[in-house]
Amino acid sequence: MRAEPPTASVTNGAITPAARCSLTLNLVSSTSTEKDVEVIAIRINPGEDLRQSLLQYCIDQEIDAAYLLSCVGSLRQAVIRFANQPEGTVFEQKLEIISLAGTLSQQGIHLHIAVSDSAGQVIGGHLMEGSTIHTTAEIVLGIVPNTIFRREIDPLTGYRELKITR
Fold it and tell me: What is the pLDDT of residue 27?
């Protein structure tokens, strides 16, 4: 399914036509002909581990393929692994969740997070266990029907990468 580009945008209160563009993507993908994607909204409570809670939810609900549509909330501690680093870095402070993106299933999850501190500085990377909720995490998931997301070692990268099956 191809999404149509927006027909208008708002700049300084004025509506202006959106620019049209063409984009060609070369993807390794699985295309679903299903029209109904189930959308689930969940809230994770203070003190809970964000990553572990999402994985456990997928296990409990037997979710085989999902993606994050939205997440807002705050953390009292974040553990983030930066690119090309073997371990996560711990940030023990109150942080706003700016973005959380990724793929999820009961077989494994891959999540990237961006958070900001009280000065508005933003950091991001791989979300690791130990990232605990401060006030809330309000999450909306899209469930992909008739699809399974698995994680398998990719001989090209050496990492557990996404494998999509139907």
Answer: 39
Q: What is the CATH number of the domain that holds 136?
A: 3.30.1330.80
Structural domain contains residue 47:
yes
Q: Determine whether 74 is exposed, middle or buried from the number of CB atoms within 10 Å of its CB (0-12, 13-18, 19+).
A: middle
pLDDT at 35: 65
135: tokens are 């006030």
Mean pLDDT in runs of 10 for the chain (166 residues)?
Answer: 39 39 38 70 96 97 97 98 95 98 96 97 97 97 95 92 92
d(CA 74, CA 48): 11
Domain extent, residue 104, equals: 30-165
Whether residue 108 contacts residue 148, with contact meaning beta carbons closer than 8 Å, is answered with: no
Report if residue 11 sits inside a domain: no
How many domains is the chain partitioned into structurally? 1
Q: Burial level of 37, CB count in 10 A (0-12/13-18/19+)?
A: middle
Task: Compute CA distances 54 → 42, 51, 84, 110, whole Å.
Answer: 9, 5, 24, 11
Element (H, E) at 137: strand 132-143
* Closest by Cα among 134, 164, 158, 166 to 67: 164
Contact 89, 78 (CB under 8 A): no
